[in-house]
């Protein structure tokens, strides 16, 4: 498939999450939420969300998607401008909004219209005034140059067919000294052919993952410094729960990724 075909496949799959919670990629919590609140709660706890965070939007903004908690990697500050790449129904945006306060702002970008509509509805119903959701692709961000303090993302960049473009755009929109704070899936070995060529495994955040050293190279090429890629302590538990079999948890890992745009 070409890049546009991949984007269309992912967009269609994630629109199904909104329309029917059981309709997305079978087997992966990255893509398919649990069928009830307890499933979503259990998934989210594995990903590193606290009990306090999980009181917000469970089953509405929090659909149980992802492979980590980017907000556990870095403490946001009051007044900061935060950008969430692939913001879905808005859960991480709303958590970030509580951290940056009324003087801050959080922007969510997602390429799935149904997710944007759901996130805007959630923002209105929960009373958030310091958030906004923009329809767009993370390879072509609808965000001004040097306007963002922190970029967060949760298990989305692996889905992009052009990861260099994603990080080039991230570098462009960050202020000097700004940082990326990301949870995502990366590879540590080669995937079996049947998984590598499996569309369900792609939208399930497995076969689109790149090697750790390739990710570091892409970040360097984009201009980032102080790059850190660290496997989550319970990575195997997270990946294994996605039920792709074949010891996939030994091949791909859930990682915390940090880097800074130099001043």
Question: What does the secondary structure layout of this molecule look like, with pairings?
Answer:
Blueprint: H1 3-19, H2 37-46, E1 81-85, H3 91-100, E2 105-110, H4 113-126, E3 131-135, E4 148-154, H5 163-173, E5 174-187, H6 193-196, H7 199-203, H8 212-222, E6 225-231, H9 235-240, E7 252-260
Parallel strand pairs: 1-2, 1-4, 2-3, 4-5
Antiparallel strand pairs: 5-7, 6-7
Helix pairs in contact: 1-4, 5-8
The termini sit apart by 39 Å
Decide which structural class fits the backbone. Answer: alpha/beta
CATH topology: Rossmann fold
How many individual domains?
1
In which range does the helix fraction lie? 25-40%
Content of β-strand: 15-25%
Low-confidence segments, given as residue ranges, are 22-29, 31-35
- Helix-strand sequence: HHEHEHEEHEHHHEHE
**Rg, Cα atoms, Å:** 17 Å
Given this structure, which CATH class is correct? Alpha Beta
Major sheet summary line? 7 strands, mixed
The chain-level mean pLDDT equals: 89
Instruction: Tell me the CATH architecture.
Output: 3-Layer(aba) Sandwich
Q: Please give the count of helices.
A: 9
How many beta-strand elements? 7
Spatial ordering of strands, largest sheet: 3-2-1-4-5-7-6
The backbone outline, from C-alpha atoms, is globular
Going by CATH, the homologous superfamily would be Vaccinia Virus protein VP39
